[in-house]
TrEMBL record:
Name of the featured protein: Glyoxalase
PROSITE patterns xrefs: VOC (PS51819)
Origin organism lineage: Bacteria, Pseudomonadati, Bacteroidota, Flavobacteriia, Flavobacteriales
Transmembrane segments: none
InterPro entries the record matches: Anthracycline_SecMetBiosynth, Glyas_Bleomycin-R_OHBP_Dase, Glyas_Fos-R_dOase_dom, VOC_core
Superkingdom of origin organism: Bacteria
Residue intervals of the VOC domain: 6-124
Pfam families to which the protein is assigned, alphabetical: Glyoxalase
Length: 128
């Protein structure tokens, strides 16, 4: 098997698709593509085949249960401070405040989204 990143897709459980879409659009400026996949309501995150990284979807259905426990998805952001401000403004909660890792040149934070999921933010520090 060729060497590649092992994760290719994720799904974030939601209870209220409209509320979740509004949260992620307001915090990250995402636009979603709505799909019905195997009887489950999905809102697909943006994806560009030629770019690096993975994509996923907001997913609603009986097998999808929002949680603060389990896997944590990291979203890249240009400004953790701005993303946290927008998240709180749109019914999110800060769970782990911004921490800077000077050695590796990045900062991280964790928050609870509008549905009760724990997600994280990753910001690459700029060399000034």
């Amino acid at each position: 098997m060729p060497h590649s990143n092992p994760v290719v897709y994720f799904e974030i459980p939601v209870n209220d698709m409209k509320r979740a879409e509004q949260f992620y659009t307001n915090v990250f400026n995402f636009q979603f593509q709505k799909e019905d996949i195997d009887g489950y309501e999905m809102s697909l995150f943006p994806f560009e085949e030629k770019n690096t990284g993975i994509t996923g979807a907001l997913a609603k259905g009986d097998v999808y249960k929002p949680t603060r426990d389990g896997v944590i998805i990291y979203f890249k952001t240009e400004s953790i401070d701005e993303s946290l401000r927008k998240a709180v403004q749109h019914k999110g909660k800060i769970l782990y405040p911004k921490k800077i890792n000077e050695k590796y040149g990045f900062a991280v934070a964790e928050l609870e989204d509008s549905e009760g999921n724990r997600i994280a933010l990753h910001e690459t520090l700029k060399n000034d």
